[in-house]
Amino acid sequence: MITKLELDKLVEKYETKDFIKYDPIQFPHRFENKKDIEIAGFISSILAYGSRKVFIKKLEDLFKIAENEPLNFILNFEPKMLGDFNYRFGKVEDFSEIFRILRQLYKADGGLEELFKYGYCECNILKMFQVVSDYFYSRVNSNIAGQGFSFMIPNPQNGGAMKRMSMFLRWMVRDGNVDLGVWNFVPKSELVIPLDVHVARVSREMGLLKRNSNDFKAVMELMSNLRRFDSEDPAKYDFAMFGYGVSRN
Q1: pTM value?
Q2: What are the DSSP calls for the chain, one per residue?
Q3: Which of 13, 18, 34, 235 fits 191 for a cystine, CB–CB 3.0-4.6 Å?
Q4: Looking at the 3D structure of the chain, how many domains does it have?
């Protein structure tokens, strides 16, 4: 198993401001208002799959559509604003439903911070994700939205790793050189690493993960091992996973 010293060195090397310009976190970093930051972060996280180069280009296109005013875009959203915008599984109808529900969230129920905070009332990350997912699924028009909606807004009941939602939460809660740290109702000790194929492979190579399936049970196994290295901020090792993969290429 890799040592704490080795992991900490990788975190120190890769958790730098230079990381931002290559990562989707660059988009919420463009804003100062908290609600702009969280909306930009949420939008960036749901598109963060597939080729990094491609989805960052699509995010650039989407933020141009939003005129780089995320909160104003959501509060005044109308489907016609999107034109024919789409990305892989996400068709224009899927994005339209997500943004319509976000409009309702910000006009009637406070916003993303309030929703996540409400879901965290039992101090359980997975239950919080379920509350967020339920909010969207209870309001979606299933005659309009399709596969892309369910892919971008995953349901924890399906057992998946909840990668993009975990990434968004890390951005919002952690502080430091990369993460934004604009939410304070979740302790850093409870955050989980966004588990994708790359992180899962690296974790197994490091001896930190034995489970074969890349599901939420694997996430919890990985975090249990990482908390032995740093019980207060185990999610920082996401940077080490990234760096380990880069250093071996």
Answers
A1: 0.96
A2: ---HHHHHHHHHHHSSGGGGGGSGGGTGGG--SHHHHHHHHHHHHHT--S-HHHHHHHHHHHHHHTTT-HHHHHHT--GGGGTT--BTTB-HHHHHHHHHHHHHHHHHS--HHHHHHHHGGGS-HHHHHHHHHHHHHTT--TTT--HHHHHHS--GGG-B--HHHHHHHHHHH--SSSS-----SS-GGG------HHHHHHHHHTTS---SS-BHHHHHHHHHHHTTT-SS-GGGGHHHHHHHHHHH-
A3: 235
A4: 1
